[in-house]
Amino acid sequence: MRTVTPDNITEVFQSYFGPDTDPRFREVIGSLATHLHAFTREVGLTHDEWRKALEALEWAAKITTPERNEFVLLSDVMGLSSLVDMINSRQGATSSSVLGPFHVSDAPPMEIGDDMRGDFDDEVLLVEGQVRDADGNPVPGAEIDIWQTAPNGLYSSQDPDQDIMSFHGLMTADENGRYAFTTVRPVSYTVPTDGPVGEILNAAGRHPWRPSHLHFIVKAQGFRDLVTEVFPADDPYLDQDTVFGVRSDLVMTYKPQPAGSFPDGFALSGKVDGPFARVDFDFTLVRN
Amino acid sequence: MRTVTPDNITEVFQSYFGPDTDPRFREVIGSLATHLHAFTREVGLTHDEWRKALEALEWAAKITTPERNEFVLLSDVMGLSSLVDMINSRQGATSSSVLGPFHVSDAPPMEIGDDMRGDFDDEVLLVEGQVRDADGNPVPGAEIDIWQTAPNGLYSSQDPDQDIMSFHGLMTADENGRYAFTTVRPVSYTVPTDGPVGEILNAAGRHPWRPSHLHFIVKAQGFRDLVTEVFPADDPYLDQDTVFGVRSDLVMTYKPQPAGSFPDGFALSGKVDGPFARVDFDFTLVRN
């Protein structure tokens, strides 16, 4: 008979696959088992450590809801979500980055130049840019889904004082691929720390902060969807995003603008007297 | 600034650890991240596959209860539980094997020679043996915790028709380390297949069967606890245990005994007229 040993268990695992197993399933599960076995052997995982890992998963199970998914957060802080984003990014396109849990379906339509600030009257941030293809040609009529934190650091779904569609909007770029809107600066925030992920971060001596960012999903017919985030260059957490979302091409700069220089063509035109900030961010899509 | 890439994300992950992190925590979590990142890159995990993995964890979360832990089962069928058992086994001791979810605390005490069959009148199996140290000397008074399936393939906690202590017992070996009891043959059974683990086994073309086995925990003062299982040599699933629990030194042989040969010194002595089976299994403990 065959005896299972630490040295042959991976081989035995592979031998269990049936002959009709989908080759991709076999590749993925076989590789996962190979790497998990290698990890277990490499560190000499103890029964106590194994039990703690299982307890962390059970705790994650208890607190996971449709609005708060601790398993996704675990994948995020382990760098897995970001790695999946990166290896599925397309050459020549703007980098993709974590979707995160705060996207809403059916965001309210916005006209080019509309304002997202709602009841918040913090300093205006004017965001504009162009959607282009890999050759630099404009992509007319691209659909741009935009969301961000309010100035209090909360997404609408985390904040009973905000409408669920607060700081969410869906804009169609013009015939030159251009988009523009006004908003406020998004702010840095922490991922939830009251579950097992918080304990892991704490034990690792890691902070739970994400640098502030604007979320975008950019879609256009014939092009691959782009899910991404854009980060200001001066954010203190830029080099230490706890979910590993920052890429160099996703960094933007807020340019301070003097009082009295607010342009025409915006919902806020004529209403902004003081200084404001301006940022230009272009997206590159690649064809399907 | 530093940009995160598929090639440096593991290094970035390691750089996030704080200076005061417990070295063992850092070793385990650092190695886990390294291997999960390598897996993700190696197979080029897609967003769809990542989402399916997250959905499997959420499904496991939904069906996990104190009596049915799908995360433990996932670890079992991936070979992780068994690998942890093996790498923590001590040289010179009887191999350890999966504890499983069916152990109960405070099993009822049994005298040497007692019978476990309860209301089941299947053919008698006489189990006996000796607990020894690594030099072959008897370990007097070792405590032996025993449990198994009923002939219907169910453990007591799975079967409303059985008392919760049915086929569970706690025996103290004699001054020569000897133990003996009568029972019925345990039977092969399937792990639960109505959750994500069942789907994974099905997609992998794997069966959900475990070879039949007797469970033992053997403890003695000054020795390391032994958690193990013992399997009959003629079980059809011996080479294909779906949780990888079989080791060559854990295989036993049922020896058929003729009618009229049942020995003295047992609770059933004088009550067994027909043929019965006999098995001898010795345990070796190593000192702490």
TrEMBL record, chains A, B:
Entry EC no(s): 1.13.11.37
GO terms under biological process: catechol-containing compound metabolic process
Keyword Kinase set for record: no
Domain Intradiol ring-cleavage dioxygenases: from-to ranges: 127-155
Cofactor(s) this protein requires: Fe(3+)
Transmembrane parts of this sequence: none
Recorded GO MF terms: 4-hydroxycatechol 1,2-dioxygenase activity; catechol 1,2-dioxygenase activity; ferric iron binding
Alphabetical UniProt keywords: Dioxygenase, Iron, Metal-binding, Oxidoreductase
PROSITE patterns (alphabetical): INTRADIOL_DIOXYGENAS (PS00083)
Enzyme class, broadest EC rank: oxidoreductase
InterPro entries tied to this protein: Catechol_dOase_N, Intradiol_dOase_C, Intradiol_dOase_core, Intradiol_RC_Dioxygenase
Domain of life: Bacteria
Signal peptide: none
Recorded family membership: Belongs to the intradiol ring-cleavage dioxygenase family.
Protein name: Hydroxyquinol 1,2-dioxygenase
Organism expressing this protein natively: Thalassovita gelatinovora
